[in-house]
Structure formats: C-alpha cells, structure tokens
C-alpha cells in the first residue's frame, strides 16, 4: 500500500514538506519491517525480541550480554532469558573471554545465520533489484542517510527511555 502524500498535486513542495513526507514513508517502512520481523521470528521458532537481539549480536564483534542489555534497554535478567532462548535455538554460542574468565562473548553460529540471510535474500530480492538502479554516488548518499537515520533512531530511543514526563496518558514510567 503506497503511503499517501500530503499534497500530491503540489510539485513545488517546501523542504519541510519533503522532510515530513520522507519521515512518514520511513515510519511506514519501519512498521512493515517490524511486521516482517515478527513473521520471520515465528518461522524461526523465536519471539520478535529474541530475533532483534540476534540481529544486534550478528552486527557486533565480541558482544557481551551486558552490552546487549545496554543496547536494547532490557534488564540483565531479561537478557539472560533472551540469550538462553537464542542459544537453545542454535543461533549463538557463548564463548569465554580468554582474558577475563568472568566475561562471555555471544558468537553467532555462521551456518544458522546464513539460513536466516537466505530467507531474507529471497524475501527482499525485488528490493535489492530496485537498489541496483541507483548509481554508486546515489548509493553512497543512501548509505550516509542510513547511518544518520540509525543514529537518530538510537538517540531518540535513549531520549524516550530517559524522558519521565513524556509517557503516554495512563502509562507509567518504567525508569529505564
């Protein structure tokens, strides 16, 4: 379903209007990705939070449960459960830090992660084809935008967690 434009007839939109339209379209894509993630998690025998944590683990290097807790905002107790479930499903292994026996690294199991990537490649083949239409310079711009968009999302998440006055009516602040 295409995301509606505010004023589709107005081709001379202001910069602010273009930014607002881009923001709406990013939110729509994000919502769809969230739905996709839920379906994928179900197919893999995981819950959605576990799958998102697995993605964070695969993107990092020498990720520890403590780092995962900080990055996700989940408690260390909740992270223990997440890590246990992901490990039982066979997607990660815990490896001791050779320099600190008290610390564990969460290491993806390569062939299991490749199974997920193969599913994603099939699902997003047409999207990848569309990206092939862009020049290298345009792809560089999109990569820059993606980096900035990610950092903005991280900062917004941190700010929302810390904002005790910004709770929706009827919601209590969790203090995270």
UniProtKB/TrEMBL annotation:
InterPro entries: HTH_MarR-typ, MarR/SlyA-like, WH-like_DNA-bd_sf, WH_DNA-bd_sf. Gene3D superfamilies: Winged helix-like DNA-binding domain superfamily/Winged helix DNA-binding domain. This is MarR family winged helix-turn-helix transcriptional regulator. It comes from the Bacteria. Pfam families: MarR_2. Residues 19-151 form the HTH marR-type domain. It comes from Aquibium pacificus.
